[in-house]
Amino acid sequence: MSQVHERTIGDRTLSMEVGKLALQAGGAVTVKFGDTVILVTACASAAPREGIDFLPLTIDYEERLYAAGKIPGSFFRREGRPSTEAVLAGRLTDRPLRPLFPKGYRNDVQVIITVLSADQENDPDILATLGASTALCMSEIPFSEPVSSVRVGYIEGEYVINPTFSQLQTSKLDLVVASTRDAVMMVEADAQGVPEDVVLGAIGFAHETNQEIIALEQEIVTEHGQPKKSFTRDEPGADLRQAVSRFAEDRMNEIIATLEKSERESAIGERRQELLERLGETYQPELLLAAFDEEIKREVRARVLKDGVRPDGRGPTDIRPIACEVAILPRTHGSGLFTRGETQVLTIATLGSTREEQRLDTLSPEDSKRFLHHYNFPPFSVGEVRRMGSPSRRDVGHGALAERAIEPVIPSEEEFPYTIRLVSEVLSSNGSTSMASVCGSTLSLMDAGVPIKAPVAGIAMGLVMGEDGNYKVLTDIAGIEDALGDMDFKVAGTAEGVTALQMDIKVKGISLEIMKEALAQAREARLHVLEKMRETIAESRPELSRYAPRMYRLQISPEKIGTVIGPGGRVIRSIIEETKCTIDVEDDGTINVGSTSEEMANRAIEIIKGLTKDVEVGTIYTGRVTRLLNFGAFVEIMPGKEGLVHISELADYRVPSVEDVVQVGDEIMVMVTEIDAMGRINLSRRAVLEGTSGPPKPVDAGAPSGGGGAPQRRGGAGYREGPPPGARRRGNGRPGGFEGGPRRRRPDRSFDRSSDRPSGPPPPPRPPYGPRRPGR
Predict the structure, then answer these.
(1) Which member of 396, 577, 622, 732 has the greatest number of CB atoms within 10 A?
(2) Rounded-to-10 torsion of CA 684, 686, 688, 691
(3) Distance of CA 566 to the CA centre of its chain
(4) pTM of the model
């Protein structure tokens, strides 16, 4: 029988229903907040998976576009692989849950979150964690305690619990906190450069709100929970531990004190092999290796806590040597190489037009984004061999973290009308490649000439906690400290404040006091890294790379958009073909023109302005003759705008034939005399000529052809075209012919196809109007 449990969180109702859907799952709960609804199920295999040394937990976040009333835009009209948002939501759920499983648990666990309804105001990602926690606690799976997650915004100086998508547009902070009854488990945030104390206050505020939701979860588990299956971990015996301790005692300093990562890993591998050869016949190999790894972990942590000495010899707050370079690739738009110790990341910046922005087909109300950061982690970066393929969930998560850290300093589209893509290539990895990607991204953006608001740097903080409550916060953790420590706390920001952070822990929560110390220590480290970056490049270059497109923006009336695009896109395609530019037209009349050639961009802008400029009556234009008809000539006075010069307006004298005055391709000056109700433009050349020259001198009609001087072109100076003596205008009023003069060919006359000449009697000879052209 289904039952609904409710709590008021913020200004909305959170409801959780059990006993209605997915009854065969190990645990199932339906979570509703606003009109957003998700179904969360949890199942585990009956037996552990052999041959692994990790918890096989899988979190599948399934976006169903029907939840938002959408049909997928793919060819098959079906959801495919998870989107970036789905991968991030799955990671957001996985990270606080994983530490709460018992150590050594090797049964496959699968949690599936299916989004059934999305109101596009309440993000379903925060509901996934509390739904997964409730489903796991209700099931037989040995999951220790409930965990809850909430989002906190910071709007007009006030903290807001679970802000909507629209509220986040004006929030300076987007913080997600997962916590148990006793401590914080996970933090994820992006911010607009807020101070550390604001972040810390938001974490405490979220932790308090989580207690209300945890109480709701506990209520459900009490009423509907199943008995937990017993789980006993195979622990190495005391005699085995002593044997391994004696073996490692003389070799531990050699292993831990090795500064180079590759040398240390090689030494550890040799000692592990030696241990198996010596004690493998007496004890189980798996337990031997587990005890050996525990011995290394114990020794590393003891040195940090007692002596304040880290494996590579640094103190708790020391940062590895930093080197920065820019412009190391000749043809890219911008490049930056950031090296910190053995961690090295090369980031490349590419600029494109706004039409190249990413189109989104997700449950989010956003449908596009113009700033992208992608992260690649090839196997050679850690000296390994493995199959190359699509980005892993880790790659997607690290790329998104660096993207969130950089996005607050990216100029707006109005200030910088480009699509920006950053790609971080990890060339060598020994701790915190995601924060190195943040630093490399800043270097490449400044090298590309992107006017960022401020440089951004990142640092990774670690933690080692002792059993007696003693602890040490470590700055700039290396790989071994990440693996053997208790926390990975990444903090990125400008000199003014935090822009992104991410905290993952391996213990059952940490206190706010530890987080406060870590944030303060991270700030000092961040300022140090920023200073090193400024020594290489202090600000963005004043100009873009010569290989980057130049983007120009102009504004036209929205009513003129159709004129620029043309029927079926014919006009805009012709402009693109002629100028080789990219042209993006927005609904509000904004037009972005992009080209690597300034000359071609200016040509495209000139054409667009000509298309959208209004023609004014009485204005004189220089145009090109495009077509000739028997009653006049069409002249293009602006790109895409033609007008008719009637034959009677071609000259300030009588013109019998249009061809006698102009030819296609001629450039002539014309005046706009009228724009009729249908928008047709009437032009006049005669109006321009009148007053600029006197009447042409008549020529004696009886003068012999070519006599009395050089031959003269019809219509030229000294020549006046007129009707033959006694000629009358035809009664039909059609221009261009006179009775007694030559008549146009009639349509019903027969033609000799072989000669293409009329087969009837020839027309009467044309009366002399004046001097003929030479050769006639």
Answers:
(1) 396
(2) -150
(3) 30
(4) 0.80
